[in-house]
Amino acid sequence: MTNVDRTPVGLAALAYDEHGLIPVIAQDADSGEVLMMAWANREALERTLDEGRMVYWSRSRRELWRKGDTSGHVQHWTELRADCDADVIVATVHQEGAACHTGERTCFYRRLAGGTA
Questions:
Q1: If you compute the radius of gyration of the chain from its CA atoms, what whole number of angstroms results?
Q2: What is the CATH code of the structural domain delimited by 18-95?
Q3: pTM beyond 0.85, yes or no
Q4: Which of 57, 67, 75, 114 is the most buried (most CB within 10 A)?
């Protein structure tokens, strides 16, 4: 058994990329299903913590994106966890409606060609 540091990680200690972003994986808090992956910057994470719902950074629009503002498909977070390198976040959420912009419950509905059945 190894000694693992389980001290909570602050936003300043996260390993953001060269654009100031970090990937966030949204996972259903009840089923464990992976719903989507998006990007966040520090401001998006601060607002997520303050508002109780997921706020991301839209790379295409170059602005904050409150999940559900236009679709109504809001994500209320229950827990945010950083991985061991603090360069990826998993957000467990209660999803209202579809997570994917296509209307699918999850963005991960397509199998790769040649993948297992």
A1: 15
A2: 3.10.20.810
A3: yes
A4: 75
